[in-house]
Amino acid sequence: MTSNAANFDFSGARVLVTGGTSGIGAGIAAAYLAAGAEVTITGTRADATGYDADLSGYRYLQLDLEDMAQIDAVAQAQTELDVLVNNAGIALPAMGLDEWDPDNFARAINIHLVSGFRLARGCRDALRASGLAGGGSVIGVASMTSYFGIGMLPGYGAGKTGLLGATRAMAMEWGALGIRANCVAVGLCESRMTSATIANPEWSAPTLARTPLGRHGVPGDVAGAVLFLSSAQASWITGQTLPIDGGYSVAG
User: Fold this and answer.
1) pLDDT by residue (tens digit) across 30-49?
2) Are 36 and 9 contacting, i.e. CB atoms less than 8 angstroms apart?
3) Active-site positions?
4) What is the pLDDT of residues 75-84, one digit of tens each?
5) Is residue 70 within 8 Å of residue 116, measured between CB atoms?
6) Which domains does the chain have, with CATH numbers?
7) pTM of the predicted structure, to 2 decimals
């Protein structure tokens, strides 16, 4: 088979990927690392040794998305930054919590929208000083729930929908500072958060049946798009959302 893989060069670039210890975040972080970047990842545990994966190649920072002071501390630690990837999140029903409860709904909004906005705002000046070709970038990891409703995920869906609007506002406000802001909207992709959904044919089979490419996503599918959006090749792209869903969103 002929190889047509793009080889991005992020040598010397400083990248922050939230939730980079597993799943999509780990795939994105690994892709930046392989491209030569200096990568910081965040996770909820006290230090990197709390994870089974080998995270020795990364700088690790603890981050609880519901702890505003911790978000500010992570932002302040980024004295130099070229790319921020707001990836971290969780579907609260996976923890046995009902997002139709107003308090849980508010938690979901904070986790998936407010935290990423706060972190991006805190990192703005570091991103403004980026010398990366194409400028500094904020990449939000959105979802098909940014477009479609899922009954059990009102808070998650609202947060991911709001992320698109916040990204457009960042693009408008920060373009003059040399900062671009874009999103990827991810379909059903293999990760720790989606493992129960994918393992249950009652939930996953209808999605596969509607997906023209006939498979679930994997973290590498998302990583390539994220690297592209933060690269010089995308230097005139800002305020946009790229669906990565195997064609699910255009299927009838």
Assistant:
1) 999 999 999 999 999 999 99
2) yes
3) 156
4) 999 999 999 9
5) no
6) 14-243 (3.40.50.720)
7) 0.94
